[in-house]
Design brief:
single chain, 5-stranded parallel sheet, alpha/beta, 20 helices, Rossmann fold
């Protein structure tokens, strides 16, 4: 059943006799019932995508499959046309939101194939844009499988005549007419054209880690058997492969050379109070003007902050937001992941916090925790954090291609300055809430963190999302520098 040849020349597997189908169905259903507990036990998230021709039976097939699964451990989502809000987000945003937690299933009634091929058929996606979309989808699926997800993709296949027959039946009943949309009828009328587009898409996105399975959907019992046996087989293989390490891909994106932290000059990076107040006022006024243009031109902006504890990230963010319309930005303070976040792909909690176009999202701590705190504290495997450099570059490339301005800050101080600020916080009752035992423990690992940060800067400072170092021994200097960088980057994007 795996896709190996052109859709036009596809030969359906020979359908067994009714008795054999019934016997094999009983066996497959029983096996699915058993495997659901193993999925939970081994914490494997399973994403099942049903694509195919209109009236091929995608929805009813999902209904049959889920009968064999505890309802507490699955979710079904019908991915209709994107909403106005979703159209203002990256293409993959609404699909990333649907990915399951560990040990659970998500079944999608249509998804990124249908949305992409519809755009192609409507002449809204072609050439380089189509190739970019395909690359995005392939990266999306590969990242999921690399991070332990089982992705199973079905294409429900019926002939033109069979489709016409089914739609005629639906249209004849008052209670079923609504199930046949204008596009469904158009699809049947232009079956050959659609087949060609689907054929190309299937070929372009058929990967070893997430292959396509074509289901002969003419006979419903036979179709159910194909789906269940394929699911069972994939889950069994997934359980066997769970402990295997994933290959670490080489970065393919152009990088900007970054200095090592120990080579960053901090002395002399100061600004006098009077000059600071004057520049702050002028720069905030300019940023305020640019924010209006950002909204008018629907440009999404993502500003991220990483840096040493007590480096001044909060004060820096405050001076940025002080110039912005509060209706057009959101600050996301990122702490340890919540249980439902930890149970998903580590980038999920950042995907779901992305801004609409025309809005600004500011992250106080970011996805780079994967290669810093998670790496050094043993919260993920070595394979996980080594793989993450490329995954985060891919994530930011996706945002860049969407049209986002990405500004990444590392707020830099020296070890002595940090100690001075820690001590001040600890001795000042009004600031004691800012200092924790964890801050002191992290300080003991300064050298290890510095090595990790240097590697992070080296491997993730791309031309489309470079790192900017803010020298913050003098916090006022760092604030002015950050404002200037944000203004410069926005002006470049808006020209």
């Amino acid at each position: 059943m795996r896709w190996l040849c052109m859709l036009k020349s596809w030969s359906p597997p020979e359908m067994p006799e009714k008795e054999e189908i019934a016997q094999r169905l009983d066996k497959a259903r029983g096996k699915m019932y058993e495997l659901r507990m193993k999925i939970k036990e081994h914490k494997i998230p399973v994403l099942v995508l049903f694509e195919g021709w209109s009236s091929a039976g995608k929805g009813s097939m999902i209904g049959k499959v889920i009968k064999n699964i505890d309802p507490r451990f699955f979710k079904v989502a019908t991915m209709s046309a994107p909403t106005e809000d979703e159209l203002r987000r990256p293409f993959l945003y609404r699909y990333m939101r649907q990915i399951p937690e560990q040990g659970k299933f998500t079944f999608l009634d249509s998804g990124w194939m249908e949305e992409t091929t519809k755009e192609v058929l409507e002449d809204g996606l072609s050439g380089e844009d189509y190739e970019k979309r395909i690359d995005s989808i392939k990266r999306f699926e590969r990242q999921l499988t690399d991070n332990g997800y089982l992705v199973v993709k079905f294409f429900m296949h019926i002939s033109r005549d069979e489709q016409a027959k089914r739609m005629k039946g639906l249209l004849s009943g008052e209670d079923t007419q609504w199930r046949v949309q204008k596009f469904d009828q158009w699809q049947n009328e232009h079956y050959g054209k659609c087949e060609k587009v689907y054929d190309r898409y299937l070929k372009d996105t058929n990967m070893s880690t997430s292959p396509w399975y074509i289901v002969d959907a003419k006979n419903k019992k036979w179709a159910e058997l194909q789906v269940l046996e394929t699911l069972v087989s994939n889950i069994e293989v997934g359980l066997q492969n769970q402990m295997h390490s994933v290959p670490i891909l080489q970065n393919v994106f152009p990088l900007v050379k970054m200095p090592k932290l120990q080579d960053v000059e901090l002395e002399g990076k100061v600004i006098e109070e009077e000059e600071y107040r004057k520049e702050l006022k002028e720069l905030q006024k300019r940023l305020r003007e640019l924010h209006n243009r950002v909204y008018r031109k629907r440009v999404p902006v993502i500003i991220t902050y990483e840096g040493w504890d007590a480096a001044g990230k909060g004060g820096n963010i405050k001076r940025i937001t002080g110039a912005l319309d509060p209706r057009g930005f959101e600050v996301h303070p990122i702490a340890s992941p919540e249980p439902h976040e930890k149970a998903r792909h580590y980038l999920w909690r950042f995907w779901t916090r992305l801004p609409k176009d025309g809005h600004i999202a500011i992250f106080d701590r970011t996805w780079y925790g994967r290669v810093m705190v998670e790496r050094l504290e043993g919260f993920c495997s070595e394979n996980d954090w080594k793989r993450a450099y490329n995954e985060m570059n891919e994530f930011e490339k996706e945002l860049h291609d969407w049209g986002a301005v990405i500004i990444k800050f590392w707020v830099q101080i020296d070890k002595d300055t940090q100690l001075e600020r820690f001590t001040d916080r600890q001795n000042n009752p009004e600031k004691q809430w800012k200092i924790t035992d964890e801050d002191w423990r992290n300080r003991e690992k300064w050298d290890l963190y510095e090595d990790a940060v240097n590697e992070m800067l080296k491997k993730t400072s791309t031309t489309f999302a470079p790192w900017h170092i803010l020298e913050s021994v003098d916090k006022k200097y760092a604030r002015i520098k950050a404002l200037k960088i944000v203004i410069e980057e926005l002006e470049k994007a808006l020209d």
